[in-house]
Amino acid sequence: MTTAQNAALSESRFANDRLRPVRIWLYGMAAFVLLMVIVGGITRLTESGLSITSWKPISGTLPPLNAAQWQAEFDAYKQIPQYQVNNSWMSLDDFKYIFFWEYLHRLLGRVLGVLFAIPFVVFLIQKRFTPQLALPLFALFILGGFQGLLGWWMVSSGLTELTSVSQYRLAAHLTAASLLFIALIYVPRSLEPGRVTGLVTGQNLTSAMILLVLIIMQIGAGAFVAGLDAGMGYNTWPLMDGALVPDGLGVMQPLWRNLFENNLTVQFIHRTIAYLITAYVAVLLWQQHATGGFKGVHGWLPRLAILVLLQVVLGIMTLLHSVPISLAVGHQALAFMLAGVTIAYIADMHRARRLR
């Protein structure tokens, strides 16, 4: 086949690829979720998440537009424990700063819903996807809406007794966001046209799935660290409180509370999972190098290893510098990117086995 014929064939396949706009849309939605995670991280680190004390899905789209509305929002904030215990020094201008981040985070959530719903309907009318694909896509929309409900459930935990949101609800909110992000990567990646090369075994798939589970667990563990401000203490590495395994990991009773409420234990768990992921990826690299190399689909593995090393370095720097916003938000965003690369690897392995 001549070069011209090859080009014509590629152009024909490109023109007949009716799912290409759908894939671009879903990748765009994944990027938007990542943006929301970044803004959510800033919202948490600036302690802005409780600045809006009510949930108004429609009317809340507009921010306060005059002095009276701003004062009403500020007065509502003054009724919650966070203001009374921690922020009674705040002026209205100080309040406007934390209000901005929470408002932006909620606004992005509303925009995400619109950016999902309208193209979904358009693509459905255009018959760009089958009813079999429409159902999981609609499920993604429901998962996004559920994420909004989880967000309000999280905020409501800090309006009556706590001075911040519950770390349990924060972990649920962030973990659900990671699952939505993963799904928004997996679906379009699994719809990519063309052949995927490389020998894929059941062990390859199982190993990658275990890695993905570990990453999701680490994201949840990181949420507990953030929810307890556990990263603000024990800012040394590799020793923690002067030891590799510090004393005091089980001081709370019953014992299980230490896993979620003891700052020392929560940070130790987060560190330990990071070591486990690093060692596990190193083993995967060694096994793949010994058995088949990194051609084709397994080219994802070296990229995963690089991201893991970057994440470890960023995590250590975040800890040593007592959690500055820039490093902490980058650390959280990179965790999601690592999960995204892992699910792309899994999707490509599924495609390789399906097309074999």
From TrEMBL:
GO terms for cellular component: plasma membrane. Coiled coil: none annotated. It comes from the Bacteria. Its cofactor is heme b. Heme binds at H270, H331. It is a multi-pass membrane protein. The keyword Lipid metabolism does not apply. Its main location: membrane. One of its GO terms (molecular function) is metal ion binding. The chain crosses the membrane at residues 24-45, 107-125, 137-155, 167-187, 208-228, 268-288, 300-319, 325-347. It is found in: Cell membrane; Membrane. GO terms for biological process: heme A biosynthetic process. The keyword Transmembrane helix applies. Pfam families: COX15-CtaA. Pathway: Porphyrin-containing compound metabolism; heme A biosynthesis; heme A from heme O: step 1/1. Keywords: Cell membrane, Heme biosynthesis, Iron, Membrane, Metal-binding, Oxidoreductase, Transmembrane, Transmembrane helix. It catalyses: Fe(II)-heme o + 2 A + H2O = Fe(II)-heme a + 2 AH2. Its EC number is 1.17.99.9. Catalyzes the conversion of heme O to heme A by two successive hydroxylations of the methyl group at C8. The first hydroxylation forms heme I, the second hydroxylation results in an unstable dihydroxymethyl group, which spontaneously dehydrates, resulting in the formyl group of heme A. Interacts with CtaB. Belongs to the COX15/CtaA family. Type 2 subfamily. This is Heme A synthase.
